[in-house]
Each structure stands twice: as structure tokens, then as C-alpha cells.
Design a protein that fits this description.
By secondary structure, the protein is mainly alpha-helical. The chain has one domain. It is 64% helix and 1% strand. It has twelve helices and two strands, in the order αααααααββααααα. A two-stranded antiparallel ribbon has the order 1-2. Helix 3 packs across helix 10 and helix 8 packs antiparallel against helix 9. The longest helix is centred in the last third of the chain and has 43 residues. InterPro entries: YidC/ALB3/OXA1/COX18, YidC/Oxa/ALB_C, YidC_ALB_C. Belongs to the OXA1/ALB3/YidC family. Type 1 subfamily. It is a multi-pass membrane protein. It is found in: Cell membrane; Membrane.
Length: 361
């Protein structure tokens, strides 16, 4: 039913087995383990671009996380409206929440396919005849895998061969534990370090941390590594090597991608600062006629905007639309805008008449 997954996984494994078979020999366990490791690297290399998009998408979500919190608080009692507003905000910022989950979702079919392909090497036909093929591998390839041993342990064995997972000869095989347990511990440690590195990156922006985010961080940092220690007993040696290689690649990839993105952001900030400085006059240089320095121009704009706002608030209403209204007869002038009455000048016409009248008397 899942042959569309099994055949591509088997083909990649077959190619790398042929490559390393020329160096170490086709029947060597090192050849098979390196083939599994480079199968992991091949798949992760194909998913490198989606991973970079995932990191950029997560960073954008962190930038407008405060706006998401406002929407959640505003529509706390209306889940439908809250979801609509959040989708609208994500669309405006060009963020797809599913994009951050795509690399992880793509790894699940690979894990399932490799688990089945490796276990299928040991599955015998119903009639008891020798197994002659396993997808892209012929009978020689099947026998080579079945007889390949690492420190005396077959790489297809697990501590517990669960028949429900495709294992043959169910039960506990404690002779596998000395090889499987160290691999399980290393895989759990790398799982914890990978999750911890990702959590430290998210914690750089405290405003983006939500209770759901904190819960997911604890889940990936502690529960997942514990799950590797528990369920690793059901994985064959080859699958544990895949898990170890996958987590090692993820940790290295995170460091490289995060460092690259940080350098890009620092370069953009430096270019923006250089552009601002280039617009400002040099120290000691006079601005061109009619041109103000950038900082002074910005301050003048802010002052003018503030004055305009204050003038708009204090401006008296006018029915006729005239900027100056004189008070009507019997009405006091408003806001101290009364005109000063001119006093009669001394020595004027009136004063002369008055003086002459007094003289005549």
C-alpha cells in the first residue's frame, strides 16, 4: 500500500550501498551503516530549502506575535472571529503556519519507509523459501544485510523485536543491548540539544512566548528524548543509526541557518544605518541652501505636526467659514482675541477743539 514510499527509500539506500561497497566491501556492516547515514543526509538535503523557509516563517511570526496576542485578548469569547482575524493577519504578513511544520511532516514518511525496508530484509516468505528480493535489493543484497554484524550484533536486530512493527522472532534479545543502548543515549542527547537550541532561539523575543509555546518547548526538550530512550528498544540497530544521524544533521543545520540569517539581518541594519548617515551633512559642513539637516528636518516635522494638532483643537468654530470673526454687538470677544481700542491721541482734533473751548471761556 505504501510502495510509493518504500521504493524511493530503498533506491537511495541501494545507491549508497553500492558506493560504499566499492570501498569497504558489500557485506561489511560499516558499508550498511554509512549507506543509512547518507540516506538520511540525502533526504535532509532535499528538504533544506523548506527548512530555511520554516525558519523565516517562524521569525516573521515572532515579529507580529504581540499583534496576535491582542487579537486573542480582544476576541477571547469569540473563537470563530479570533481565528478569522489571525488568518487575516498571517495573510497580510505572508506567513503560512503549515510551512513551519512541513519539514517535520516530510520526515515521517521517510522514517516509516526506512523502518519497513530494513525490517523487510529479515522477513521470510510464507513457504519458508529463501528471500530473493527486497524492493531494489536482490537476493545477494538481502543476504549481505542479514549477515552484517556490528560488534557481533546483527544490525537488523533490536532489543525487543515487536512483531507488530514488522520484527521477526518476537521477544527480548538482551545481547543487542550493549550496542543499542549507547546509540539510544546518544540519540536522546542530540534530540534534547536540538530542541534546546531551537527554544533558545525563540526565547530571544520574549513577546512571542505563549503558554502553548512553552508547553511545546518542554515537550520537545524532555518528553521526546525520553521517548527515544523508551521506544528505542523496539528499533533495530540500523534505525537507531538513522535517528542519530538525523538529529546530528538537524543540530548542525540549525546552527548554520540561524547564523546565516543573523548575518543577513545585521547586514540589512548596517545598510540602513549607512543610508541614513549618507543623507546627513558631514561634520562641519553647511547644509545646502533651502535644505535642513535630517535630524533638524525630522524635529521640525514633528513640531509642525504637534502645532497643527494643537491648533486644530483650539481653533474656534466659524459658521461663515471666515478665519477671523468679530464679536457681535453686545457680545464679549472670545479667547482673548478682543481688539485693542485706540485711545484718542493727545493734541488731536478733538483735544484741540476742547482746548479752544476752554480758552474761550
Amino acid at each position: 500500500m505504501l510502495d510509493f514510499i518504500y521504493y524511493p527509500v530503498s533506491f537511495i539506500l541501494w545507491c549508497w550501498h553500492k558506493v560504499f561497497g566499492f570501498v569497504f566491501g558489500a557485506d561489511n556492516a560499516i558499508t550498511w551503516l554509512l549507506a543509512i547515514i547518507f540516506l538520511t543526509f540525502t533526504v535532509r538535503g532535499i528538504m533544506f530549502k523548506p527548512f530555511v523557509n520554516q525558519v523565516r516563517s517562524m521569525k516573521k511570526m515572532q515579529e507580529f506575535a504581540p499583534e496576535l496576542k491582542k487579537i486573542q485578548k480582544k476576541y477571547a469569547n469569540d473563537r470563530q472571529r479570533q481565528a478569522m482575524e489571525m488568518q487575516k493577519l498571517q495573510k497580510e504578513h505572508g506567513v503560512n503556519p503549515l510551512g513551519s511544520c512541513l519539514p517535520m511532516l516530510l520526515q515521517i514518511p521517510v522514517f516509516i519507509g526506512l523502518n519497513w525496508v530494513l525490517r523487510a530484509f529479515s522477513i521470510q516468505p510464507a513457504d519458508g523459501s529463501p528471500k530473493t528480493e527486497n524492493y531494489f535489493f536482490d537476493q545477494a543484497g538481502v543476504e549481505s544485510y542479514v549477515h552484517a554484524k556490528l560488534f557481533g550484533v546483527n544490525i537488523g536486530d533490536a532489543i525487543h523485536n515487536a512483531t507488530m512493527l514488522g520484527g521477526q522472532g518476537g521477544g527480548w534479545h538482551w545481547h543487542v543491548a550493549p550496542v543499542a543502548i549507547p546509540l539510544m543515549i546518544l540519540a536522546a542527547i542530540l534530540t534534547h540539544l536540538t530542541a534546546r537550541h531551537s527554544a533558545q532561539r525563540q526565547n530571544l523575543n520574549p513577546e512571542s512566548i505563549t503558554p502553548q509555546t512553552q508547553m511545546m518547548q518542554r515537550l520537545t526538550m524532555y518528553i521526546f528524548p525520553l521517548g527515544v530512550l523508551v521506544f528505542g528498544a523496539f528499533f533495530p540497530i540500523g534505525l537507531l543509526v538513522y535517528w542519530l544521524a538525523n538529529n546530528g544533521w538537524t543540530l548542525m543545520q540549525q546552527r548554520l541557518v540561524y547564523t546565516r540569517i543573523d548575518k543577513e539581518e545585521a547586514q540589512k541594519k548596517a545598510e540602513a544605518a549607512e543610508k541614513r548617515n549618507s543623507l546627513a551633512p558631514r561634520p562641519g559642513a553647511k547644509p545646502k541652501p533651502g535644505q535642513k539637516p535630517v535630524q533638524q528636518k525630522k524635529a521640525d516635522d514633528e513640531t509642525a505636526a504637534g502645532d497643527g494638532k494643537a491648533a486644530g483643537q483650539n481653533k474656534p468654530s466659524s459658521k461663515a467659514g471666515s478665519p477671523h470673526r468679530f464679536p457681535q454687538q453686545g457680545q464679549r470677544p472670545q479667547n482673548g482675541s478682543a481688539q485693542k481700542r485706540k485711545k484718542p491721541a493727545q493734541g488731536g482734533k478733538n483735544s484741540g477743539q476742547k482746548g479752544s473751548g476752554q480758552k474761550r471761556r
